[in-house]
Specification:
The complex is a heterodimer of chains A (194) and B (227).
Chain A: H1 7-18, H2 25-33, E1 40-42, E2 48-55, E3 58-65, E4 73-78, E5 81-82, H3 88-93, E6 95-96, E7 100-105, E8 115-122, E9 131-134, H4 142-150, H5 158-167, H6 169-172, H7 178-189
Antiparallel strand pairs in A: 1-2, 2-3, 3-8, 4-7, 4-9, 5-6
Helix pairs in contact in A: 5-7
Chain B: H1 2-21, H2 24-36, H3 38-47, H4 52-66, H5 69-79, H6 85-106, H7 136-150, H8 153-162, H9 178-185, H10 189-205, H11 207-215
The chains are: A alpha+beta (194), B mainly alpha (227).
């Protein structure tokens, strides 16, 4: 097929889009200091609002998405973490490069076309907007999911994950990972994926 | 040598199965064999003077060229059972490297890749490329065009995440690596790389995407064919 733009042009376009895709860490921190944290709205095709509220004991994360997020298994990852402390200054200064990731399930029910999930991460002060990905069952590799679940700081219960797999079984028919999904489901039921 | 013969034998059988029977499993195995050669291809690209930051993308483009069904059909037609997948890959990579070098020679000094950062080619922004001129509607149009062109939620997410700046490395402007993107989506790194190559290739050839980029000022001179 005829290429209309070069690879370099496309990379330049993506770099330009990237520069405004999400607010910078500095902006978020400034907002935090001004006590004016606002949700970050990621436009279509992501269509998700993210709100992060850290305090001395942990962080509250709230995700609000449109129809496509209903019942979705979502992975969030932070790469910069400030460890919680009773000393506010110390809390701001202590950071680690060790990423933290969590999984959460968006509810099946939507209100006014929006579904919302709120989770609290104890003992983790997360100052930045996480990278967010919706797991696509048809393409996801259950072995990688299992590994990520095992190292997650927070995840749905085994039963919730089994229900999620069951809800997506039709989509998984005919995929190359079909058998691996069945295995993962059995392992979750047997409590082997904690 | 035994190993090479074994692989060579497998390749011709796989090629035959794909070309004559349309065997998708054979095609996937050919892709896997090709991916095993990525470290060698990367080393080759670097030995030809391609900076590391660009080598990975050239290799991915070469893989994309080499593994197109029509390219595999042509390979079989030309060489039959003597077809060598690895030679085929290196030929495609050499083609990509030649194009890359020609492009670099034509590029004005201020647009050289020397000041670039990141793991994929991330050119410095030109004045016309500043996203600060983009309105929310422009950005919505852009992502809508991406969505329509790729027509696959996984590919859209790969592109979205891959253009996300890693907050931890914000100062360096590094984007999320495809390895991180793969972890986020619970897919293999190879799968993410292949899909990234496929997605960028699609965008480069998509009239709708091209048109939207022109409309919102992300392409100032009409793309490569108008340069």
């Amino acid at each position: 097929m005829r290429e209309l733009i070069t690879h370099e042009e496309l990379m330049r376009i993506l770099a330009a889009i990237q520069s405004e895709q999400e607010p910078s860490q500095a902006t978020l921190q400034a907002a935090a200091e001004n006590q004016s944290r606002r949700p970050v709205k990621l436009p279509e095709p992501i269509d998700l609002e993210i709100w992060v509220d850290p305090d001395s004991s942990g962080t509250v994360l709230c995700l609000t998405g449109g129809e496509k997020w209903k019942g979705a298994l979502v992975q969030c990852q932070w790469n910069t973490i400030a460890k919680p402390s009773t000393n506010e200054e110390a809390a701001k200064s202590v950071q680690t490069a060790e990423p933290v990731h969590i999984f959460l399930l968006m509810p099946q029910e939507a209100s006014n076309g929006q579904c919302q999930a709120v989770v609290t991460l104890e003992q983790l002060r997360l100052e930045t907007i996480p990278a967010v990905a919706r797991i696509v069952p048809r393409y996801a590799d259950p072995e990688i999911l299992r590994s990520r679940l095992q190292s997650a700081a927070l995840k749905p219960s085994a039963k919730e994950l089994v229900d999620w797999i069951d809800a997506n079984l039709r989509e998984l028919e005919g995929t190359k990972h079909r058998d691996k999904w069945t295995t993962l489901r059995k392992e979750l039921e047997a409590g082997k994926c904690s | 040598m035994e190993h090479a013969k074994q692989i060579g034998g497998d390749v011709s059988e796989l090629l035959r199965a794909f070309v004559f029977e349309g065997d998708e499993t054979a095609y996937e195995q050919l892709c896997m064999l090709a991916l095993q050669k990525v470290p060698h291809l990367l080393a080759y690209a670097k030995s030809c003077g391609v900076p590391e930051s660009d080598a990975e993308e050239l290799v991915h483009d070469a893989l994309w060229d080499a593994l197109k069904p029509e390219a595999l059909h042509a390979l079989w037609k030309k060489h039959g059972e003597r077809a060598d997948l690895y030679t085929h890959l290196f030929i495609k990579l050499r083609g990509r490297i030649s194009t890359y070098k020609r492009r670099m020679q034509r590029r004005p000094r201020h647009l050289s890749f020397e000041g670039l950062s990141g793991t994929r080619r991330e050119p410095i922004s030109e004045p016309t490329m500043h996203a600060t001129n983009l309105t929310a509607d422009d950005k919505a149009l852009f992502w809508q065009a991406v969505n329509e062109c790729l027509n696959n939620e996984l590919d859209v997410q790969i592109l979205w995440l891959a253009t996300r700046t890693d907050a931890h490395e914000e100062r360096s402007g590094k984007r999320y690596t495809l390895k991180k993107v793969a972890e986020m989506l619970c897919i293999s790194h190879d799968n993410a790389r292949q899909r990234w190559c496929g997605a960028t290739q699609k965008l480069r050839s998509c009239p709708k995407f091209y048109q939207v980029c022109r409309e919102i000022g992300l392409i100032s001179d009409g793309g490569k064919n108008h340069a």
